[in-house]
Every structure is written in C-alpha cells, then in structure tokens.
Fold this sequence. Notes:
mainly alpha; 168 residues
Amino acid sequence: xxxxxxxxxxxxxxxxxxxxxxxxxxxxxxxxxxxxxxxxxxxxxxxxxxxxxxxxxxxxxxxxxxxxxxxxxxxxxxxxxxxxxxxxxxxxxxxxxxxxxxxxxxxxxxxxxxxxxxxxxxxxxxxxxxxxxxxxxxxxxxxxxxxxxxxxxxxxxxxxxxxxxxxx
Length: 168
C-alpha cells in the first residue's frame, strides 16, 4: 500500500507560480459572459439609448451637427457603464470565487495575482476596443448621424489618429 502511494506522489509535479496564477485566471473565465459578454452587452444597450436620446434632442432642437450639440454629447456617462459593472464583478469574484479557489488548493497570493491579472487583461482589451471605437466615431463623424458616445471628455478631445492626421 505504501508503494502505491509513493508511486503516485512521485508522479505529481508541482506547478510553477505563473501556471498557478494563470489557472486562477482560467477559473474566473469559466463563465466568460460575466467578464466579457455582459460588459459589451451593456455598451451596446448604452449606445442604442444614446443614439435614441441624441436623435430626440436633434429633432427637437433643430439638428445634432452644431458645435454646441456635439460638445454637449461629450458629457455622456454611457461609456463608463461597463466599468461600474466590472467593479461589482471584481468584488463578487473575491467574495464568491475565493472560497472555491481555496477548496482547489489555491493560495491567497496566487488568487489575488490571478484575479488582478485577469482585470488588467480585461482593462487592456477594453481600452483598445474603446480607442478603436472612438476613432471610428471620429472618422464617421458620429456614426453618420452626428451622435457621439465614445468620444467623451475623459477619453481625449480628438483621439490619437484624428490628431495625428490633422497635424500633418
């Protein structure tokens, strides 16, 4: 009996720290909808509502293409809606996922680093996507209907491609 246990113990290889941390990221991403799908569904719904409200304002005030109307749309908080959702998801990842991860033998340090890595990766992908959407919004002059959502005050006045192309 001891030889059998000794044989299995010798075949177990301890995982490296990066592998353990990556396993925590994978544990969180078992339900990808929570971290990827729902935030982009929120962005989509906020965009539809923004277009709807902007069109109502445009019809009642005589047009959306005026500088005042465009400047007024820069104060929209719709682009921040997925970030607030992800803050709540981060809190829930710790409170609900941590006991499960401890049951799998994950250390507190690895769980923290894996969760932090997940949210850094999500933030980087979302920042790149918002930068591209901001540029598309600028190039199409408000999605061809003078409606602006992604070019909010805190995301830059004109965007990096738009500024570079106008300065040359």
